[in-house]
Design a protein that fits this description.
Elements (H helix, E strand, L loop, with lengths): L5 H14 L4 E2 L6 E4 L5 E7 L5 H16 L6 E7 L4 H9 L2 E9 L2 E5 L1 H6 L1
Parallel strand pairs: 3-4, 4-5
Antiparallel strand pairs: 1-2, 2-3, 5-6
Amino acid sequence: MTECDHGTVVNTLHDELEAMGREAYSTRKIDLFLADRDANITHVLEIKTDQCTSSIYQAVGQVMLHGALEKSDPHRILVLPGILSADTVARLKRLGIRVLSYAWKGEKPIFDGLKGVLNS
């Protein structure tokens, strides 16, 4: 997977969220986010196309900083390809960051556990 896959992953996830009845938004800085009726961000989703250490560090910083602007803490979700190690998942959980994994089926990313990560 390459950086050019980022748009495909963001757009596919956006479409899946919309199909679930969730209005998803993006900005130049935030890949995707969900908001409540009062425009408060409830979920911040940062999408990465690899699991390299620098990508994970960058994503952690992004979800933490973007979430820090809100009155109440939004759900912070890191979206990554494949399955992370149990140790990394445990560390992210301790930071209050949820993980949504995806795998490619042909040219489309498939998200495993989307409903669960949004509602847990």
